[in-house]
């Protein structure tokens, strides 16, 4: 931890912070806000652009600090993300809705691994990252999974790109689906929360459909976000036997337990509203800076080398979420 505050790491950390803050500012500007592109998405894009322009300088002066932002800032951001959840609201959804979330998450992860490895010939890391982004909570899930898998940066970038493409498509498609399916607003909100990639995209869709759908959709989506904890713990447990030393503890993503602790604190402790709001702002900044640091270390040549297969996998998962999610929503909930 002492190395995180050392002088050689400051340029890279300041760079990640600057790119992240710029991305958040751009995301809130009127032209981009209409496209519903989140700050995390723009942060990795701006990071990639800077990385291409800076070239070799990234690997010398800025690399140590960028590594700190990718590791420590990301973990703290995931922990603070738990303050967005309230266990009381989640339990109030009822058993059928919670079962729907579990089935969609487990089904998407399983399908992603099976299709990615068996049919598309992808490596395990790329398949898992792409499936996690689709199944749980988009770019935040990809980043959290990367910290457990210790995947190469270009694989993370490819997975985030697929979330961006199909998550943005959701924003324009789902309001049309509400008319086509004939689902009443609350039921459509359940369907949206159980199947759309990012929390921000769920909010955008809910606002277009109406308040009856928006509030329900966000709570259902946050229940999916909470499933990031058992997923990461399972990944850490599976990695542990292969560690050189340290046993189970070495592979355990302890920041996932911190995420759960923050959720419990937000549910049962009297956290002042001003403090909670400030921590959520800090959380957004940390995640944006981590995304920027990740993008800065990526080269476009490595993205091109990945080819179309990750996009095909993400398309298949998108179809499963949209069509299979509708069928399961009607069957389990309606």
Could you describe the 3D structure shown?
By secondary structure, this protein is mainly alpha-helical. Helix 6 packs parallel to helix 10. 80% of the residues lie in helices and 0% in strands. The chain has one domain (2-332).
Provide the descriptors you would attach to this structure in a database record.
single chain, 334 residues, mainly alpha, 18 helices, globular, Putative sulfate exporter family transporter
Could you give a quick summary of the protein structure above?
The chain has 334 residues and is mainly α. 80% of the residues lie in helices and 0% in strands. It has 18 helices and no strands.
SSE blueprint and pairings:
Elements: H1 10-28, H2 30-33, H3 39-54, H4 63-81, H5 87-91, H6 95-119, H7 124-137, H8 139-149, H9 153-181, H10 185-195, H11 199-209, H12 211-226, H13 228-239, H14 247-251, H15 254-268, H16 273-296, H17 300-306, H18 309-332
Helix pairs in contact: 1-3, 1-4, 1-16, 3-16, 4-8, 4-15, 4-16, 6-7, 6-10, 6-12, 6-18, 7-8, 7-9, 7-18, 8-9, 8-13, 9-11, 9-17, 9-18, 10-11, 10-12, 10-18, 11-12, 13-15
């Amino acid at each position: 931890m002492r190395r995180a505050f050392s002088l050689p790491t400051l340029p890279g950390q300041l760079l990640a912070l600057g790119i992240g803050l710029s991305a958040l500012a751009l995301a809130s500007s009127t032209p981009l806000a209409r496209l519903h592109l989140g700050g995390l998405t723009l942060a990795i894009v701006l990071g990639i652009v800077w990385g291409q322009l800076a070239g070799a300088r990234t690997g010398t002066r800025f690399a140590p600090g960028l590594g700190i932002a990718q590791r420590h800032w990301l973990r703290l951001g995931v922990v603070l993300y738990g303050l967005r959840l309230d266990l009381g609201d989640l339990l109030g959804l009822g058993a059928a809705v919670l079962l729907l979330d579990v089935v969609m998450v487990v089904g998407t992860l399983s399908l992603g691994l099976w299709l990615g490895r068996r049919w598309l010939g992808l490596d395990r890391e790329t398949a898992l990252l792409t499936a996690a982004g689709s199944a749980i909570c988009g770019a935040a899930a990809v980043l959290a999974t990367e910290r457990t898998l210790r995947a190469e940066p270009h694989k993370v970038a490819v997975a985030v790109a697929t979330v961006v493409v199909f998550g943005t498509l959701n924003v324009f498609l789902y309001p049309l689906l509400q008319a086509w399916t004939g689902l009443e607003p609350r039921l459509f909100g359940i369907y949206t929360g159980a199947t759309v990639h990012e929390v921000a995209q769920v909010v955008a869709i809910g606002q277009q459909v109406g308040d009856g759908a928006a509030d329900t959709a966000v709570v259902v989506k946050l229940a999916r976000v909470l499933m990031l904890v058992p997923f990461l713990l399972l990944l850490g447990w599976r990695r542990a036997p292969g560690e050189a030393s340290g046993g189970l503890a070495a592979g355990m993503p302890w920041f996932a337990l911190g995420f759960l602790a923050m959720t419990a604190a937000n549910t049962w402790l009297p956290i002042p509203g001003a403090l909670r709001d400030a921590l959520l702002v800090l959380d957004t900044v940390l995640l944006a800076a981590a995304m920027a640091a990740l993008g800065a270390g990526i080269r476009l040549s490595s993205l091109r080398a990945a080819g179309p297969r990750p996009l095909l996998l993400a398309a298949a998962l998108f179809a499963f979420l949209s069509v299979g999610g509708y069928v399961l929503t009607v069957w389990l909930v309606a």
